[in-house]
């Protein structure tokens, strides 16, 4: 069994100043950023083991909240999958039509070619 890594020190952040009016900062909708009154700061350490709770770094309880926009990727993937499915269905239909009616189509083209090659009366 590999040795357990030593605990990581708590990341040091720049001093946080409260926003005007005594309000503490706020988190971004995705939970990855924290507004300290002057700029957006990361709410998670780079190794994702620590989370800023607005006053101190605390161990992260679990994975960070899911990123917004995951539904857009799913919609794009479904759209591409549907497009490929339609292409396959159309290709199968064309192959079936050419296989079953290929002789008749060739006969029509040969008749047209023969008609174009004969002089008109």
Short descriptors:
three-stranded antiparallel beta sheet; 40% helix; 121 residues; alpha+beta; rod-shaped
Outline the secondary-structure elements.
Blueprint (H helix, E strand, L loop, with lengths): L25 E2 L5 E3 L4 E3 L7 E3 L4 E3 L10 H48 L4
Antiparallel strand pairs: 1-2, 2-3, 4-5
Helix content: 25-40%
> What are the secondary-structure elements, in order, as H or E?
EEEEEH
Helical stretch count?
A: 1
Beta percentage is 5-15%
Q: What low-confidence regions span 5 or more consecutive residues with pLDDT below 50? A: 13-23
Overall shape: it is: rod-shaped
Largest sheet: spatial strand order: 1-2-3
Regarding quaternary structure, what we see is single chain
Work out the number of β strands.
5
Helix and strand content put the structural class at: alpha+beta
How many structural domains? 2
How big is the Rg?
Answer: 33 Å
Distance between the termini: 97 Å
Mean pLDDT equals: 78
* Major sheet characteristics: 3 strands, antiparallel
Short description:
The protein has 121 residues and is α+β, with helices and mostly antiparallel strands. It has 1 helix and 5 strands.
Explained architecture:
- Helix content is about 40%, strand content about 10%.
- It has one helix and five strands.
- The chain has two domains: about 10-65, no CATH class; about 70-115.
- It has about 120 residues and is α+β, with helices and mostly antiparallel strands.
- The model is unreliable at about 15-25 (pLDDT under 50).
- A three-stranded antiparallel β-sheet has the order 1-2-3, with no helix packed on it. Strands 4-5 form a two-stranded antiparallel sheet.
- The chain is rod-shaped, with a radius of gyration of 33 Å.
């Amino acid at each position: 069994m590999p040795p357990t890594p030593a605990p990581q020190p708590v990341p040091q952040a720049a001093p946080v100043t409260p926003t005007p009016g005594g309000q503490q900062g706020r988190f971004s909708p995705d939970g990855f950023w924290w507004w300290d009154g002057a700029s957006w700061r990361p709410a998670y350490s780079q190794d994702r083991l620590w989370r800023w709770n607005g006053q101190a770094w605390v161990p992260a309880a679990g994975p960070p909240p899911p990123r917004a926009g995951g539904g857009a990727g799913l919609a794009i993937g479904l759209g591409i999958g549907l497009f490929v499915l339609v292409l396959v269905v159309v290709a199968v239909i064309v192959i079936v039509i050419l296989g079953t009616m290929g002789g008749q189509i060739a006969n029509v083209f040969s008749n047209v070619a023969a008609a174009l090659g004969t002089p008109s009366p």
